[in-house]
Write a structure and sequence with these properties.
By secondary structure, the chain is mostly helical. The protein has a single domain, classed as ABC transporter involved in vitamin B12 uptake, BtuC (Orthogonal Bundle), CATH 1.10.3470. 81% of the residues lie in helices and 1% in strands. The protein has a two-stranded antiparallel ribbon with strand order 1-2. The longest helix is centred in the middle third of the chain and has 42 residues.
Length: 302
């Protein structure tokens, strides 16, 4: 028994693993906290766009010696602004606008990286993350971004919920819809930047969408959905980072794979909205309809 406990405690003997586990857990919790709003608003494509659009900002920040979070956040906001401008001033559909902008920003980032190969920018780090080698300065940025995002969502979650459900109703009740739109957009950009170190630009979308989608299958109450999403994302991030040591796999890949497995379990076994529950409901309805349609004569079944 003692040998088993010693074996399980091995990852905690290394400072880089302790840092990777707690930073991944923090990022996972923040992504899960915001995920229900992104899912409810239908901004999955927006999250994908912003996670790729940060690449030129990260490249410029590294080349100029600025904090990467600052460059990534500015690039994400510029991309969001460009999408809003094109959508408002043209007849191009929103999905096409998002595709054009995020691929353009991503391409610009690749160009900048190729033009300055010695600028300290590692494309693989941006795309796949490098949580095992995260620097102290980057940890501080992640902590500050995460704390700010949690505080904003914690104080404004009811207004944001109403805006995501029905922007017109929120406007009727006197809420500043434009401010809420920008707030949610800024939160999305900030969380994308925070998750960049843990899972990279490619897998950020999964951490922003999967926990909220999983929680949506498990409850009908939005408040409960927030806490379920945050708990699922936090736990899967902790366990995924921990297991990555034993299987010698990419930390981000382990985290997202574990979140996907949890989603699949909820998709199949959720008591209300799972696949098995839906089939039971269909069979029950079929049985009731069969009894109603059963031919009768003088009150007796034929």
């Amino acid at each position: 028994m003692s040998d088993l406990l010693q074996s399980l405690a091995v990852p905690f003997q290394y400072d880089y693993m302790i840092r990777a586990i707690w930073v991944s857990t923090l990022v996972g919790g923040v992504c899960g906290f915001l995920s229900p709003f992104v899912t409810l608003k239908g901004w999955s494509l927006m999250g994908d766009a912003l996670s790729h659009a940060v690449v030129p900002g990260v490249a410029i920040a590294y080349i100029l010696g600025f904090p990467f979070a600052l460059g990534a956040f500015i690039a994400a906001l510029l991309a969001a602004g460009a999408m809003a401008l094109i959508r408002a001033q043209s007849r191009i559909r929103e999905d096409a606008t998002i595709g054009i902008v995020f691929t353009s920003f991503f391409a610009l980032g690749l160009v900048l990286i190729s033009l300055s190969p010695s600028g300290g920018v590692n494309l693989k780090t941006i795309l796949y993350g490098n949580i095992l080698a995260i620097a102290d300065s980057d940890i501080l940025q992640v902590v500050c971004i995460s704390a700010a995002a949690i505080l904003v969502v914690g104080f404004r979650w009811r207004d944001l919920m109403l805006y995501c459900f029905d922007a017109n109703q929120a406007r009727t009740l006197g809420l500043k819809v434009g401010v809420l739109h920008f707030t949610l957009l800024a939160l999305l950009a900030a969380v994308c930047v925070a998750a960049l170190q843990a899972v990279g630009a490619i897998l950020v979308l999964a951490m922003l969408i999967t926990p909220g989608a999983t929680a949506n299958l498990l409850t009908n109450r939005f408040g409960t959905m927030i806490w379920l999403s945050a708990s699922i994302s936090l736990a899967s991030s902790l366990v995924g980072a921990y297991l990555s040591y034993y299987i010698d796999g990419a930390t981000g890949g382990c985290i997202v794979t574990l979140q996907t497995l949890v989603f699949l379990a909820a998709f199949v076994f959720s008591p209300q909205h799972g696949l098995l529950a839906s089939r039971r409901a269909i069979r029950a309805c079929s049985g009731v309809l069969g009894e109603i349609n059963q031919p009768r004569m003088n009150g007796h079944e034929l």
